[in-house]
Amino acid sequence: MSLNFGREQLSIPGPSVMPDRVLAAMHRPSPNIYEGELIDLTASLFPDLKTVAQTKHFATIYISNGHGAWEAAISNTCSKGDTILVLVTGRFGQGWADMATQLGVKTKILDFGDSADADPAAVTKALEDDTDHTIKAVFTVQTDTASSVQNDIPALRGAIDAANHPALFFVDCIASLGCDRFEMDAWGVDVMVTGCQKGLMTPAGMSFVFFNDKADVAYQNADLKTPYWDWHPRANPEAYYQHFCGTAPTHHLYGLREALNILVLEEGIEAAWARHQTMSRAVWAAVETWGCLELNIKDPAKRSQAVTTVLSKNDECGKLRHWCEHQAGLTLGIGLGLAVQGEKSWNNVMRIGHMGHLNPVMLMGALGTIDAGLKAMKIPHGSGALDAASAEIAKHFTES
Question: Which residue among 26, 47, 62, 115 has the highest number of C-beta atoms inside a 10 angstrom radius?
Fold first, then answer.
């Protein structure tokens, strides 16, 4: 008999849990889109978005998912026949490369597999070999949502500089912004893309592209620009509607304003990074203690603070996902194309999202539910996982 008769919890790596305050802010009649409150609210978003991204440069909002931000980044900087270098550390770098190819951009791939981060030395060598400087940009993700690896963005910037190469540096922070430390300007990132539905705690439907002056120089000669994706009117509008190339995503903007109130004005971005670090370590401690499951990324320094990919030798992950959702009301993430023992399967991979609107009550509830699932299905596992997780949470207070 199911126990799933309370409030369900989403623990997938996005969309993440939406704060009640965000949903309440969106639950209102449509506003005037020509003057007044909405225009002022929209203007207030950009400084806080830049604080989250740690940039003083340009920020744009698109009515799209993250794939739209990918296309905007490419189309505003590249031309047909250009060459880019894409670092693949799971699924999403390859997805960005595939989109570039479809737009007529040539891609060179450095594939580091499903369980390793991008190697800066390999990046330096690839750029040193590009003696004619045909590579226009280096593309990577900070967190690959499928593998849960976290790439070392400052080290990759250093790799580009070590090659003395003029390539632009593009980073996908769709899964990581607001969760993992990211400093766009200090780390030398030229273009960054993200979405609203993960660390920014707003229902899916908006994406963001941040770019600096160096990227804007590339814009001048890019021949892939289209009226909708063009970032110039959005970043420097003469009229309000140009922020969105038409009608604003009104209710999403109200939700985003409330989410940024929480993230920037109340918690603060440094505190948010520290909270995500604690939550991620609690998840890792529980998984390691259970023993029957395996963390996809072995080195803690290379793991995402937003999502953890977990593997099982057989179908334990699939059984756990099904039991947790249908018997207890906890939805865990499916695997996205990862191979275990050489074979891809839905049932030997799961992903635990720990991003955005999350506190110890919510996280310990999720881990306790997984622990109960292991017991209910008689999957052999080690004891003490919840003690290990709670100890990591306690360290947050004893070591601060």
Answer: 62
Alpha-carbon gap, residue 374 to 359, rounded angstroms: 23
Q: CATH number for the domain including 225?
A: 3.40.640.10
Average the pLDDT over 44-61 and give the result.
98
Domain end: 233, 265, 297, which one? 265
Q: What number of H helices and E strands is found in the chain?
A: 13, 14
Say yes or no: 250 and 128 in one domain: yes
Are 339 and 256 part of one and the same domain? no
| pLDDT of amino acid 346 | 79
Q: What are phi and psi of 296, to 5 degrees?
A: -65, -35
Residue-wise pLDDT for 265-304, tens only, equals: 999 999 999 999 999 999 999 999 999 999 999 999 999 9
pTM for the full predicted model? 0.97
Backbone angles phi, psi at 248, to 5 degrees: -70, 150
- Our CA angle for 342, 343, 347, nearest 5°, is 135
Q: How far apart are CA 164 and CA 185, in angstroms?
A: 19
Q: CB-hemisphere CA count at 13 Å for 86?
A: 25
Same domain, 321 and 252: no
What's the pLDDT at 337? 77
Which among 115, 4, 11, 8 is positioned nearest to 334, based on CA atoms?
A: 11
Whole-angstrom distance, CA of residue 142 vs CA of residue 161? 18
Residue 181's pLDDT is what? 98
Q: Are 41 and 334 in contact (CB under 8 A)?
A: no
SS3 254: helix
Chain centroid to Cα 166, Å, comes to 26
Check residue 45 and give its pLDDT.
98
In one-letter notation, the amino acid at residue 58 is: F
Residues 356, 199 contacting (CB under 8 angstroms): yes
Structure tokens at 326: 């249908």
What DSSP character marks residue 77?
A: T
Range of the domain at 369: 9-16+268-398
Cα distances (Å, whole numbers) of residue 343 to 314, 348, 349, 354: 11, 9, 11, 27
Residue 3 lies in a domain: no
Is residue 2 in some structural domain? no
